[in-house]
Amino acid sequence: KIVFAASNLRQHRFYQILLQNNKIDKNSLAQIPDFTNDLALAQILIGKNILDKTSADEMFCQQITQIIEDILSWKTGGWSFSHLAQAKDGICYEINLQLLLTNYARNMADDAIISRFKSFDEKFSLIENAAVNFDLLPLEGFILSRMTPSFVRIEAIKNQCGLSNIEVLKTLYVLWLGNLISRKNWNSAFSESQIKDIL
Fold first, then answer.
1. 119 and 181 in contact (C-beta within 8 Å)?
2. At what angle do helices 97-106 and 165-177 cross, to 10 degrees?
3. Contact 160/132 with Cβ under 8 angstroms?
4. For residue 181, what is the enclosing H or E element?
5. How far does CA 102 lie from the centroid of its chain?
6. Torsion of CA 113, 119, 120, 123, to 10 degrees
7. What is the pTM for the complete model shown?
8. Can you list the residues of the chain whose pLDDT is less than 50?
């Protein structure tokens, strides 16, 4: 799950999202003091009946989605964790993370996909009764229909489906990021000791 998403980039500010979606015009926006405070701006617009709560929530969901999409496009960068960074109480928005991540995987270059796998000895299995909140492409549905709850090596999946290496790897990566299959023997981004330090 996405626990927290924030950005200081201008295109990610709430007022910019509103302008992009024609929810407010520049003249009306200029009359609002401190319109750069996202939460305060939303409350003011709701109070003036310019925006209703449902529309405001939709705009916040779009804002979060755009932030995550941009972060996923980064090729380099650093990561740090601070227990001092905290979200304000009562802020909770539902985004379709499953769709966001699968679209990201579908648009990755072949060499980037290949670099995400340690070897063909990695194993995958079906997550039974997993929710599917996006439309599967034909190849994704084809491979998913052949997955079982037992872990199977990539090589065996490839041989069973009769597809090329990149077709199998890309499809497995999409299904894995979509939380429809489980994965074993892969290089995780964080070691177990790093995860324990975070928790």
1. no
2. 160
3. no
4. strand 181-184
5. 8
6. -90
7. 0.81
8. none
